[in-house]
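= Protein in question =
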Amino acid sequence: MMKQITFDDNGLAPAIVQDADTGQVLTLAYMNEEALNKTIATKEAWFYSRKRQELWHKGATSGNKQVVQSMSIDCDKDAILLQVKPQGPACHTGEETCFHKNVFQEQPASFIMMKKLTEKIKTRKENPLPGAYTTYLFAKGMDKILKKVGEEASEVIIGAKNNDKSEVTWEIADLTYHTLVLMELLGVSVTDIKRELLKRHLQKGDGEQ
């Protein structure tokens, strides 16, 4: 990897850090050759601080380390992409990402929608809000949630039989939401499901699945 990277005149290359689970960009930092080698050796993110002019092990002080899942370089071989599992906020301000100040936003990025929804469901479970539908579901418990999952699955089938794309979209959204409520009740995460799907369908040979 080291020989493939083209460092600038200061011996640095930009490193984009992305959450491996959500796809959210967490920060932009810089690596020199030593930081790159340490990252590869430890599987934790190391950078070079241009301000302090020293090597920087992300999270060494705060505990907010970034466990590296993969590393790749761009087509010009002068920029690095790290996909990581963050052990805490990426930003020194305590924000999840350093890119938390929007210049403009027509709508939230779709790749973080599932994360935001699961967080909201978790909040409703831990801090019930009177009158909220999710609060009502958790209050009623397992049987009610299972009933809703079954009902919504049936609605998906009906929409499909009607060959109605709009109806199917609506009902799959309902089924997804109620399934996420069930998952929260049982302690199953979206990451758990992604890993299972990855194992079944994307980590096997072409002749399987």
